[in-house]
Write a structure and sequence with these properties.
Blueprint lengths: L1 E7 L6 H13 L4 E6 L14 H12 L5 E3 L12 H12 L4 E7 H4 L8 H7 L1 E5 L14 H6 L5 E4 L2 H6 L5 E4 L8 H10 L9 H9 L12
Parallel strand pairs: 1-2, 1-4, 2-3, 4-5, 5-7, 6-7
Helix pairs in contact: 2-9, 3-5
Length: 225
């Protein structure tokens, strides 16, 4: 089995996430893509994040009816901060050693990879699939990337320009996927909800209804001090 792992805060999940997942299913010839909402993200202020239950439920609503999309509560039910290396090893234990794992993350998250718990250990279990954000130069020689590339032991780096390259990725490799980027952000969705603007066309209708029903994102986020 070829399994993509798409973690994140999903605060909330939106159409950009779904478009990304659909394209990566094709690029990487995935049998499944597993959405894993973070429980307590260690690198994000907790006061600005909807509860794990709300975010989990919104993902469930968003992926309903998509046969290759699956949802895991591996992090939502874990006490304390959620660490990706533990999640990937839990997924590996569940699917067996023969499964091929592909851990998907944005370039902004990758640039903080040195702050993650045991990134080298994570890379032993899976290939990394990086999704560029904005105009960020994402290659092993780029100024911001080179130290992380060195930290990881200079893994094989592949810019994915064809499906065959996606299927060739092995555990320990880093692939850069030039997928379609929709101009949607969870931050902008939260801002629009807070000031009473429409989010139609940014999230699935079922997610929009859920946000309205539970009055999520209505309050001004707490300021850091």
């Amino acid at each position: 089995m070829r399994l993509g792992i798409l973690g994140g805060t999903f605060n909330p999940i939106h159409l950009g996430h779904l478009r990304l997942a659909e394209e990566l299913v094709a690029w990487l010839a995935l049998d499944r893509i597993l959405f894993i909402p973070a429980g307590l993200p260690p690198l994000r202020p907790a006061g600005r994040v909807a509860s794990a239950l709300h975010r989990y439920t919104m993902v469930a609503l968003a992926i309903a009816g998509r046969p290759r999309f699956f949802l895991s509560d591996a992090e939502c039910g874990r006490p304390g901060p959620s660490y990706s290396v533990e999640t990937v090893e839990e997924v590996r234990a569940g699917v067996g050693e023969s499964a091929r794992l592909f851990f998907i993350l944005g370039s902004d998250a990758f640039l903080r990879f040195s702050e993650w718990r045991e990134p080298q250990r994570l890379l032993k279990q899976t290939a990394l699939v990086l999704v560029p954000r904005g105009a960020q130069a994402l290659d092993p020689g780029a100024k911001d990337v080179a130290p992380i590339h060195a930290l990881l032991g200079r893994p094989r780096w592949v810019t994915l320009v064809s499906r065959s390259q996606g299927t060739s990725l092995e555990p320990g490799d880093v692939g850069v996927a030039r997928v379609t980027s929709l101009p949607i952000s969870a931050r902008e969705i939260r801002r629009r909800v807070r000031v009473g603007e429409s989010i139609q066309g940014m999230v699935p209708a079922t997610v929009e209804e859920y946000i309205q029903k539970h009055r999520l994102y209505r309050e001004e986020p707490a300021r850091s001090v």
